[in-house]
Amino acid sequence: MDGIRGCYNLNNVVEKTADDLLSESQDVTETNHLFSSKTYLKSHDLSLCVFSSGVVDFLLVSKVIHYNNILLELFCKLKTMITIATLAIILYLISWFLLTITLRSRLAKTATLVDKKVYLATWSVAILLHAIVLYYPLWLNGGLTLSMIVAASHIIWLTSLVLLITTWTRKIEALGVFILPLTAFTFVLQQMVSLNTGEVIQIHNGLGVHIFSSLLAYSMLMLASIQAALLAEQNNHLHNHKPTGFIRVLPSLQDMESLLFRFVTLGVILLSIALMTGFIFVDDLLAQHIAHKTILSLIAWFIFATLLFGHLKFGWRGRTAIRWTLAGFVMLMIAFFGTKLIQHFLLGS
Question: Per the confidence metrics, is the pTM higher than 0.70?
């Protein structure tokens, strides 16, 4: 109907123009020609309108079909991603279950029913599927959505990946008892809360180095903080001469401390890269909306760097190392998640 109405309006304009020309014309031949043109336009008015209406309707239908196809394609992709995510979550929980059975067998000093390679293989497949869901937007449009929940999922995924790689060579799979369910829970939250929400950040040049080094630094220092918490618990049990339960499946105190300082060292290196690339590639890193995040991250870096200096120079270890590690990690988490929480939920920005 809109096409017919527009067509009639067009013909009315043409007819009015022809009437104006007829009234101004003084030449008989020109007048006869204009009158014939006006009559032709009026006689073909309906057929022209019907044709124009048909073209408009065809274009509208084509548009609807086009957008329908786009929506159908998006729905299929979304359904596929949800299926992959669900499978990854199930595999994380299966890995956690198999790992728990293995650790219980060690505590009971009975034959292990599950081979280590089985739950590590299941864990590896879960990690791969998780990565497909996380980084599919990067392959699709060259950008990542880093809302608070999605960023948390990236950090926990990288933490799980680092722990998995380390577990193949060292006996620290006991940390998976905490990391695996946390990874699955965070991934569930991402699917429920943050589907296609948040600002898409285009990854290009040094910005990608800044983002990924930041995520890796958070992941490495999160592992260090979990290691520090377990080390504190292990230390208390050994001092009380009651190393019972879960503590008995952990590596020796010396190995736990050595691993703690490895995680902290790698975390500080990655955090240094993140801060340097941030100052180089991020426009005005001390701008008002991210100044607090930058300052808190620098304070966290200073805490961890002081810990490493004290360990090398004065032999800091034990409870001193644990306190500095946990303090630095809390500051780092406030820098990232605390500021995001305030911006998104309290300030609504």
Answer: yes
